[in-house]
Amino acid sequence: MQESCDLRVALGRVVRRLRQGYVSGELTLTESSVLSRLDREGPATPGALAELERVRPQAMGATLAGLVERELVERTPDAADGRKVLMSATEAGIKLLVDRRSHSTQRVAAALAGFAPAERARLVEAIPLLERLADAL
């Protein structure tokens, strides 16, 4: 039980520190997550995105509306089922995502520079476990 609490606190601190780099007008964490998912996995329906991001469809609708308004994602009819709409990342969305990843990656790389090589290797080894934990939550 204490391990769970310690892990939650440590991950919370990491997330808060990453959020401190947020500047008004940039992508929110949810917008970034959705845009990243569309970039990695390809077009998806708003309902599927809501389920994958574990948010209500209404919240996903608001997130997607903001991304569409900024021309970072676009809506297209589903070729297989014309009643459905598919969301996909635009070139501008992918460029913004790459730029943001670069900035965030630079911040993390700078912080990791203070770690010993063996410590960095242990953190890399933990990535698949953290991804499984995120999926299970």
List the helices and strands and how they pair.
Elements: H1 2-19, H2 29-41, H3 46-53, H4 57-69, E1 73-77, E2 85-89, H5 91-112, H6 117-136
Antiparallel strand pairs: 1-2
Give an overview of the whole structure:
The protein is mainly α. It has one domain: Arc Repressor Mutant, subunit A, CATH 1.10.10. Helix content is about 70%, strand content about 5%. The protein has 6 helices and 2 strands; from the N terminus they run H-H-H-H-E-E-H-H. It has helices spanning about 1-20, 30-40, 45-55, 55-70, 90-110, 115-135, and strands spanning about 75, 85-90. The protein has a two-stranded antiparallel ribbon. Helix 3 packs across helix 4. The two termini are about 15 Å apart.
**Number of separate strands:** 2
The tally of helices reads 6
Q: Beta-strand percentage?
A: 5-15%
Radius of gyration: 17 Å
Q: Which of globular, elongated, flat, extended, rod-shaped describes the shape?
A: globular
Q: What is the CATH level 1 assignment?
A: Mainly Alpha
Structure summarized in a few sentences:
The chain is mainly α and 137 residues long. It has helices at 2-19, 29-41, 46-53, 57-69, 91-112, 117-136; strands spanning 73-77, 85-89.
Jot down its keywords.
mainly alpha; two-stranded antiparallel ribbon; 6 helices; 2 strands
